[in-house]
Each structure stands twice: as C-alpha cells, then as structure tokens.
Amino acid sequence: MDLDIVELSRLQFAATVMYHFLFVPLTLGLSVIVAIMETVYVMTGRPIWRQMTKFWGMLFGINFALGVATGITMEFQFGMNWSYFSHYVGDIFGAPLALEGLMAFFLEATFVGLFFFGWDKLSKVAHLTVAWLVAIGSNFSALWILIANGWMQNPVGAEFNPDTMRMELTSFYEVMFNSVAQAKFVHTVSAGYVTAAVFVLGVSAWYMLKGRHIELARRSITVAASFGLASALSVVLLGDESGYDVSHNQKMKMAAIEGMWETEPAPAPFNLIGFPDMEARETHYAVKIPWLMGLIGTRSLTTEIPGINELVAESEDRIRSGIIAYDALMAIREARDATPPAVRAVFEDHGGNLGYALLLKRYLDDPREASEEQIKQAADDTVPNVWPLFWAFRIMVGLGFGFVAVMAYFFWRSSFRKQVYPRWALWGAVAIIPAPWIAAELGWIVAEYGRQPWTVDGVLPTALSVSHLSVADLLLTLAGFMIFYTILFVVEMSLMLKYIRRGPVEDVEETEIWTARHEHRLRTTDGKDPFAATTTE
Questions:
Q1: DSSP character for 263?
Q2: What is the domain range of residue 203?
Q3: Which of 3, 244, 269, 401 has its CA 20 to 30 A from that of 492?
Q4: Are 159 and 167 a contacting pair, CB within 8 Å?
Q5: CA-to-CA distance for 256 and 261, rounded, in angstroms?
Q6: According to the model, what pLDDT value does residue 3 have?
C-alpha cells in the first residue's frame, strides 16, 4: 500500500472541502436573513426593507455562485481519487447525494434566478415565496449532504454482502434518520446562521462607523443580533447534543477530543486545557472540571467514558475477530454458491468486525498472516492524532460562547438602548467577521480528522479507499485545485468588498423619500420628542 498516495489524496480532498466550506456557511445563513428581511418588507411595505433585501441578496448571490463552482468539482473527487470507496459503499453514500441534486440543488438553482430577476415581474407575495424557497433549498442541500456524511460517521441501515463484496442498503429510513446525521445537520446549519449574522453585523457596524447608510445599518444590526443570538444559543445547545451522540457512536473520537488516555471513574471530568502527548500517552498539565465530561457525554453520574488505552485494547480484540471474518469471506468468495452453511454462519458472527481486519492491509496483503506485533500496530492506528483534535475543539467551543456574548450585547443595545452603539463595540463587530469561518473550519477538522483512520467508521479504512493513481497525478491535480480555488477565493473577496464599499444602490430615491416623509410624520408641532403628548388650542 503506497501511503504517499493515501496522504496526498486526503490532502487534496481536505483542501477542496475546506475551500468549499468557506462559502457554505454564509450561503446557509444569508439566505434565511434575506428571506426574513423581505418578509418584513411585505408585511410593512417600507421601501427600506426592500432595499435591505436587495443589498444583502446581492452579497448572497455572489457567495452562492462561487460556492456552487467549488462544490461541483469537489464531488467529482469521489470517482477520481476515491474509486474504491465509491465502489464499496456507493449504493448507500450515493443515494443522499443524488437526492441533494434532485430535491435541493435544482430547487435553489431554479428559484435563485427568479429572486434576482423577478422583482418587477412577480407580486410581493410571489417574490417572497421565491425568497423562502431559495432559503429552504439551500438548507435542504445541507441536509442531504450531512446525511451522507453522517452515515460515514455512523454506518447504520446497511450491511456487507459477502457475495458482491460491497456494502448494500438495508434501510433508507435508518440512513435518513441516523442520529449522527441529524445532530450534524442542526449543528452545522445553526453555525451557518451565526456566520451570516456576524457578517451582517460586522458590515453594518462598518457603515455606522463611516456614517453611511445609517438606516439600513441600524435595521440590519437589529436583525443580525436577534437572529444571531438565537442561532448562537442553538449552536451551543446542539453542540451538546452532538457530543452526547459522539460518546455513544464514536468513542475513540470522544476520547481523543478530551485527551482522555485512561478510563476515568464516572462521572468523568472535562479537560479544560492541557498538552496531549502521543508518545507518552498522557495529557500534561491538564486542568480538569469535575463531572462535566460525564454529564455532557453520558448525561448521567454513573456511566463511564472509556479512555484511549481501553479502546485500543478493544480494537485488538475486534481485529482478531475481523481476521476470522476475513478467512470466512475468502472461503465464501472461492466456493460461491457451494459455500457450506457453517462458513456463512461464522461470517455472520464475526462480519461486523471485518473492517478492523482490513486495517492490517496497510502492512500486508493477507490479514490472516498478521503477527501479534502487526495486530497491535493496527490497533494503535485507530487513535487519531490527539493534539489537533484537542485544541481545535476547545478553540471552536470558545468562539461559540464568544458569539453568544457578542450577539447578546448587540441585542440588548438594539432592544433597550435605542440602537445606539459605542464605537469600540462597532469596531469589535468588524474585527470578528472572520471568526465564524475559523470556528466552522475547526469544526470540520474535529468531525472529519477525528474519524481517522476510517473513511466509513469501523467499516472501510482510509488506506483502502483511494484510487490507483500516481504521485505525479495527485501532485499535479492538487496544485491545479489549489490554484483554481485560490483564484475563486480572490474573486469572491474582491466582489464582496466592491459591493460592500459601494453599498446599496437600488431603490435609493424611493427609500430616501419614504424616510423623509416618515420622519416628518414623527415630528410634533412643538419640536419635542416624536412620542411626546401634543396640545391644541
């Protein structure tokens, strides 16, 4: 097995996914914010809300177009770089992706055109319906993709067929309502909403600092703060649900995230900070919060969370069981229909651990010939690199709580301080614009890097999933993808900055006239506060 090909394939896919994920969160959140703004416009008839819808909708459109470009090329990699993965699990993995194209992508791609070009051709209610269909389509797209990804994390509703040598779907219902997929969907979508809220908040704060488009900026901050606070709280609460799910379905990932080498007495403490050491199998200078990890991971005071060393020992047993399954599989493959029932019974008993035997393929062609040292080595391979997971998780969580604080502050100023914001707060809102993207990328690292060494957890090792390519092929395509995506990223930033600097240019005269009339109506004859009582003679 040429590990250089494996690592280069992983690097290429990671690079393309992380580039693509720069566009996804903003698309998810901004589509909903734009629909909310248009809803207010339809309900009130105030032109300022139509102007806001068009302005933020333009930024959404730029991001949406470039996100589509990066997403399409990414999906082709399943066939190009991961052909054995596609062959082995394509019957299950391909179904959600096909539905994503049919139900979600076509929906949003169709109605996004009507959104931009239908302002003067559709009624207010019809155009509002289009806006919500675009938002629904964007979020449906995330749902089906995360169902596919959730199956890779927790492969339910499928089983291995020894006659076809492939995984086959047994229950689409189980795949669709996989607890990991559902937790990932709501958590990821909420994170996208926070990203959009921070973006709208930061851009609006910049306008207020510059004294431009004040009315648009004030209303946008109010929407962003309200929407962002609800979303940030959802991220924290739904992140807890994800942690609970991981502790049941991906125990090694949970132990690695916590830097927990030994099984702790229940309820386990939470390592607030520390320095994981893979060589010593110890987390140095750990600062622990008693009981917290047990409560998060098990929601009880009596259930243990297994440590890394215990899970490695368990993996050794599963590898040995998998070798028995592999031996039975080879017999079935040779005898086909003439296979004795006893051999099939052996495979049924041990087939759930076949993937663990395949971990040995990294070291030798026939797992049945593995030595004890190779079995122990393969068991050690089930431990992901702890240090990046440990710190990526903590930085992500810290940023999540930070977003709650920021949104709560601006919500308070919007609701109870007459939309008056200190300059330091406005500058802070501008400064944190990149933070949600950092949190989202770290979340992706925790979810995907923490699954290693598996492409499909417990079923198919990453080292077996790649195509038969040369190092030169991978280096060439990796360079091509990096150049292409970097160009797209520069285009995205250039267009975004261009339209942000320009500000809203549509419906300006109509909005200014309406604003002037509205302010005139609020004035009293004696020049006092607009809501003060008036007297007549």
A1: P
A2: 5-254+383-506
A3: 401
A4: yes
A5: 8
A6: 54
CA 352 to CA 321: how far, in whole Å? 9
Contact 114, 67 (CB under 8 A): no
Q: Give me 275's structure tokens.
A: 């320095």
The tokens for 435 are 């933070």
Domain membership of residue 315 (yes or no) is no
Phi and psi torsions of 156, nearest 5° = -100, 165
Q: Is the bond preceding residue 422 a cis peptide, omega within 30 degrees? A: no
Contacts 24+ apart (CB under 8 A), 244-249: 244/296, 244/297, 244/298, 244/299, 245/179, 245/180, 245/183, 246/180, 246/297, 247/296, 247/297, 247/298, 247/305, 249/153, 249/154, 249/179, 249/180, 249/457
pLDDT for position 129: 96
Helix (H) or strand (E) holding 177: none
Would you say residue 303 lies in a domain?
no
- Answer yes or no: is 263 within a domain: no
**Contact indicator for 196, 378 with CB cutoff of 8 Å:** no
As a whole number, mean pLDDT of residues 475-495 equals 89
Average pLDDT over residues 94-115: 85
**One-letter amino acid identity for 226?**
S
CA 524 from centre of chain: 52
* pLDDT (tens digit per residue) in 300-325: 888 888 999 999 999 999 999 999 99
Residue that the structure tokens 């090909």 belong to = 5
Note whether 196 and 26 are within 8 A (CB): yes
d(CA 424, CA 391): 29
Would residue 423 count as lying in a domain?
yes
CA distance 8 to 411: 46
Report the distance separating Cα 400 and Cα 166, nearest Å. 40
The contacts of residue 342 (CB under 8 Å, 6+ apart) are: none
CB 340 within 8 A of CB 384: no
Question: Mean pLDDT, to the nearest integer, of 404-424?
Answer: 94
Rounded Cα–Cα distance for residues 522 and 424 (Å): 31
DSSP three-state, residue 393: helix
Domain count, the chain: 1
pTM (2 d.p.):
0.91
Q: How deeply is 194 buried, as exposed, middle or buried, from its count of CB atoms within 10 A (0-12, 13-18, 19+)?
A: buried
Specify the higher pLDDT residue, 524 or 361: 361
Q: In a 3-state reduction of DSSP, which class is residue 450?
A: coil
Using alpha carbons only, give the angle 10, 11, 14 rounded to the nearest 5 degrees: 85
Token couple for 188 = 């990821």
* CB atoms closer than 10 angstroms to residue 104: 20
Angle at 319 between CA 313 and CA 321, to 5 degrees: 110
The model's confidence at residue 523, banded by pLDDT at 50, 70 and 90, is low
Average pLDDT score over residue span 15-42 = 93
